[in-house]
Amino acid sequence: MALVFRTVAQLAGISLSLLGWVLSCLTNYLPHWKNLNLDLNEMENWTMGLWQTCVIQEEGGMQCKDFDSFLALPAELRISRVLMFLSNGLGFLGLLISGFGLDCLRIGERHQELKKRLLILGGILFWTAGIAALVPVSWVAHLTVQEFWDETIPEIVPRWEFGEALFIGWFAGVFLLLGGCLLNCAACSTQAPLASSHYAVAETQYLHQHLEMKNSHLKI
Predict the structure, then answer these.
(1) Chain-wide mean pLDDT for the chain?
(2) Considering only CA atoms, which of 177, 169, 174, 175 is closest in space to residue 27?
């Protein structure tokens, strides 16, 4: 039963981590961190991401413009870029490392202690990637709420609101954290046997045949 839990936890952990990594990559590049709806012109909506600002028109489609300078960006966008790149890189590295630690992979199946350490390291990398994804989206969301309720800004001025990328980023961070927890739980549970049943049966049959041949030679 413990081996079944270990296998299920590994597969669920790597699947959630893969989903979280894909969502974090989408969050990084989607230009929908903030949305701005203009009351004076309802046919035109503005969106802002880490890399560009877009205007969506019902007749003209979507037109985007990249930010000209990294240093000219607000501090939250500059730091968010770095943290999202860190999340994407750590998530990819975690997928590679934890993949070699899975029991379903026959490579190195006689080195269970090494595979356990790879799973633990992969889980830690997923934790770090999840935190690195949650911090920027939460920070931008916090500043958006502050600006939305800022009484010093006239009410006639349009306010930025949450974009879809923020929600995708929250899901990405949670999935990465859950995936890392499952992988670490699987690594700390009962280890799989050193050899699979197929190899164990084959080795037993070989030893049995070898003993029979040895006994027949002794009788002769």
Answers:
(1) 84
(2) 169
CB contact set of 192 (below 8 Å; sequence gap of 6+)? 3, 6, 103, 109, 112
**What tokens were used for 209?**
């045949």
Of 119, 114, 115, 116, the C-alpha closest to 98 is 119
pLDDT band at 84 (very low <50, low <70, confident <90, very high): very high
Say if residues 172 and 211 touch (Cβ distance below 8 Å): no
Q: How far is residue 185 from each of residues 42, 72, 80, measured CA to CA in Å?
A: 51, 44, 30
Residue recorded with tokens 């002769």: 220
Percentage of residues of the chain with pLDDT beyond 90 = 52
Structure tokens at 34: 């903030």
According to DSSP, the residues that pair with 46 across neighbouring strands are 36, 55
Which two structure tokens, joined as six digits, stand for 180?
A: 């890392």
What's the pTM value of the predicted model, to 2 decimals?
Answer: 0.81
Q: How far apart are the first and last CA of the chain?
A: 49
Residues 48-68 as b/e (b if ≥16 CB within 10 A, e otherwise) read bbbbebebbeeeeeeeeeeee
Spacing of C-alpha 14 from chain mean position? 9
Q: Supply the DSSP symbol for 190.
A: P
Determine the distance from the C-alpha atom of residue 21 to the mean position of all C-alpha atoms in its chain, rounded to a whole number: 3
**CA–CA distance, 178 with 172 (Å, rounded to integer):** 10
Q: Quote helix, strand, coil % in the chain, to nearest 5.
A: 65, 10, 25
| Interatomic CA distance for residues 107 and 118, integer angstroms | 13
